[in-house]
Amino acid sequence: MSRRTRLAVVPARRIMIGRALALCAVAVVLAIVLVLLGLPLGMVCGLVLKSTFGTVFGLENLALYMTPLLMTGAAVWLALRAGLWNIGAEGQFLAGATAAAAVGLFAPLPAPVALPVAMLASLVAGGAWSAVPAAGRAWLGVSEIITTLLLNFIATYLVYYLVTGPWADHVTDAQVSSQRMMLALPSVYSVVHWGGPVALALVVALGALLKRSRFGYELSLCGSNPDSARYAGIRVAPRLFTALVASGALAGLGGMMEVLGTVHRLQGGLAHGYGYLGIVVALLARQSAYALIPAAFLMAVILNTGIVLQTLQVSASSVLAITGLLVFAVAVSDELAAYVRLETKS
Amino acid sequence: MTAFLPLVLHALAYGSILALAAQGEVIAERAGVINLGVEGLMALGAVMAVLAADASLSPWLGCLAALITGSAGALVLGLATVNGSANQTLCGVALTFLGLGLSAVLGHAVAGLPVSAIFGSWSVPGLSRLPGIGPVFIQSPFVYLAFIILPITCHCLLFRTRLGLSLRAVGENPAAADAVGIPVRRYRLWAVVTGGALAGLAGADMTLSVMPVWSEGMIAGRGWIAVALVIFCGYRPVFAAASALLFGLVMSLSFFGQAQGWPIAPAVLNMTPYLGTIMFMILPALVLPGMRRLMAAPAALGIPYFREER
């Protein structure tokens, strides 16, 4: 006789095997869809590989995609450690970008002064953008999922309003865009800017903070079992608030890197879904902050794949569909990995 | 009065979208499953309604396609979260991504084109000829469904039948429900599928009646607002319809304001539904903490049921 039982703690190896299978399943579904759309599979695969890894341009693109993904991923991950779902990284990203753009456009400061100011402004703006949902969740128990998400739409409208109204570009005829800013993050290599290394350092620091500090321990405790945290004398609400505001600040900083490092203008489609993809990055990373790095890399590859598909006349939103499929497959495989066959002696 | 008539008509039309989706979500959440994929299901329903209506030249078949799409999407979610006990938040968000992305891909060819077959208005005999308020009684079938038929049906189903009692028991205390012989997973699965069907229908309401054209991003967070409404209305179908009307009013304010040339930037007016939703989620909790017990979520909402852990 054998029957299945569910493990309370799942070994990482089982999770990884499950996820590898999930990834394969997504790839198979994708291949079937491509065939149904009438695209030659081999050609598409070759094109994706070549344009992602085979060219300098592709590699630069990967680095540029990874930077915001690391930041929004870290943001969602931090909130998740406290048991909170920050679905609003997109809005916080835009808020941070807007604040940084305000500094870049209107503050007549030399770059060494202006960059830290812009950084600070984006941190504050991102944090402020998540403060209301954070307070609502921490003290009133209002679902942060919905409030953070709805603020994304407000941020989108805000940016749209600014770049078509008061901050619109009147010099060149760029639509839905501000002027090109002089203020920029210094570059590491050609178009790749210092945002990437900073993001990497931040992720590592975040991992150390959560693992080694008292704050990190208390935060994880609040996330995994708020009741026992309360019993241990930890005041849960302020910690939840801090976690979500810090999460917003991280996403905001990501926005600053994007606007001052990559795009150099405040634009309508600036956030590019990075906030939502951050959820996927955080999900793939699970408990480890360091795992955010390979997760962000995988998402960057998927984003690049989307660009290739777009050149083949598939809608740009196919990336969103692939992402959804991936999250779904991973969520299911993570659960199924918890089931083991129990051998019972008859 | 006549000046505000367009506002009311708008509110009814836009409110019906929210009402359909929100009441579907009430059913799912009463059974203990939170479906965060409403936004994606609405998008899929909307685009499938357009495709089917264009192909068959019948809005009814468009409607049917949306219903089937919504149910199928929700079935996938239900199988994953109810039978597979996967994380409901994650799967819901994934379904939203998938729905939004897939609908954009599917609707690529018809984006921006007028839908060839849409629902006309049905008038209530007698009432529609009333002076002044007559036009209120000339509405698309979705409005009658969302504000009259569905609230009554859902309310009676949930609170007046044994089926509804079992459904609520599954959402409040699945172990107890299981003990008296109610098939917990089957109830939950069907509740999610019903909710998904209504979300798909809400999408059809958009493209076959309210704004008869498919464009990417046209759902614009309405699915999320519907999910928020469910909390706001305390998981009651009649209140859900009423608060949907309220939010329909908030949404139409932005159109109305722009049409009337109010001295408010259009962007700000566009933000009002979202700001309003956030306000309505936070204010009741802030001002009326005593209400929280009355409006509380089903006790087992979002928690998968394992018989072994009983």
Automatic annotation (TrEMBL), chain A:
Keywords: Cell membrane, Membrane, Transmembrane, Transmembrane helix. The keyword Membrane applies. Pfam families: BPD_transp_2 (PF02653). It is found in: Cell membrane. It is a multi-pass membrane protein. This is Inner-membrane translocator. The chain crosses the membrane at residues 20-42, 62-80, 87-107, 113-132, 139-163, 191-210, 240-260, 266-285, 292-312, 318-340. InterPro entries: ABC_transp_permease. The keyword Zinc does not apply. Coiled coil: none annotated. The lineage of its organism: Bacteria, Pseudomonadati, Pseudomonadota, Alphaproteobacteria, Acetobacterales.
Automatic annotation (TrEMBL), chain B:
Keywords: Cell membrane, Membrane, Signal, Transmembrane, Transmembrane helix. The chain crosses the membrane at residues 31-53, 60-82, 94-122, 142-160, 189-211, 223-251, 271-288. Residues 1-21 form the signal peptide. InterPro entries: ABC_transp_permease (IPR001851). The keyword Transmembrane helix applies. It comes from the Bacteria. It is found in: Cell membrane. The keyword Cytoplasm does not apply. It is a multi-pass membrane protein. PANTHER family: ABC TRANSPORTER PERMEASE PROTEIN (PTHR43370:SF2), SUGAR ABC TRANSPORTER INTEGRAL MEMBRANE PROTEIN-RELATED (PTHR43370). This is Inner-membrane translocator. The lineage of its organism: Bacteria, Pseudomonadati, Pseudomonadota, Alphaproteobacteria, Acetobacterales.
